[in-house]
Amino acid sequence: MIERDNLILVGPKHSGKSSVGTLLAGRLNIPFLDTDTLITEISGKTPRELYDEGGAVLMMAIESQACALATSRHGKDNPCVLATGGGLADNQAAKQALSGKGSIIYLEADFDVVFDRIMESARRDGRLPPFLQGDNPKENFRVIFTRRAECYVTMCSLRVQTGLLTQSDIVEIIISKLFA
Q: What 8-state DSSP symbol labels residue 84?
């Protein structure tokens, strides 16, 4: 096992954090955690169910607990790869829980690619995520995407522009930049 701190993946919804995180953890032979899974473990509800029940306030409270739980279990002596939710940028308490707890890696994905993935997921689920509901989901998302991107840039220690890269390519870039 590589003697490093946690690797924390941030970026917009459907930017590949969980997929890349799983591969990265496998390559480094360290555990993979996903805040969505931790949220469900803590609350007994999915992030969507929490949001439906109590809005952003409830969701962010549990997300903060999930981030604190992950970093209390893992660190320099026992690092993990942690995939965070797309809304992390708007959650000050969750960002604080992660601050200084590892290398923050921003998976910088193209707006149109991410929006198309969200729309495909919404088609499968039968509804848009609550934060995109309204007259113009694409413009709603553009505003959120732009605001959150600015936050991710300021909080990250590594930016990876995913573009047309494969998940394996992204993992190789992360490893080469952090462990070279």
A: P
User: What amino acid is encoded at 146 in this protein?
Assistant: T
Residue 52 forms beta bridges with which residues?
none
Structure tokens at 173: 């870039």
Q: How far apart are CA 79 and CA 5, in angstroms?
A: 5
Task: Give the mean pLDDT of 57-69.
Answer: 96
Domains in the chain: boundaries: 6-174
**Residue among 156, 122, 154, 153 at smallest CA distance from 137:** 122
Of 5, 3, 1, 8, nearest to 158 by C-alpha is: 8
Average pLDDT over residues 156-162: 95
DSSP 3-state assignment of 113? helix
User: How remote is the C-alpha of 159 from its chain's centroid?
Assistant: 13
Distance between CA 9 and CA 7 in Å, rounded? 7
Percent of the chain with pLDDT over 90: 81
How does residue 3 score in pLDDT terms, banded at 50, 70 and 90? very low
Residues 20, 170 contacting (CB under 8 angstroms)? yes
Distance of CA 118 to the CA centre of its chain: 14
What is the three-class DSSP state of 104? strand
The domain covering 6-174 belongs, at the CATH homologous superfamily level, to P-loop containing nucleotide triphosphate hydrolases (3.40.50.300)
The amino acid present at 118, given as its one-letter code, is I
Given pLDDT bands bounded at 50, 70 and 90, which one contains residue 2? Answer: very low
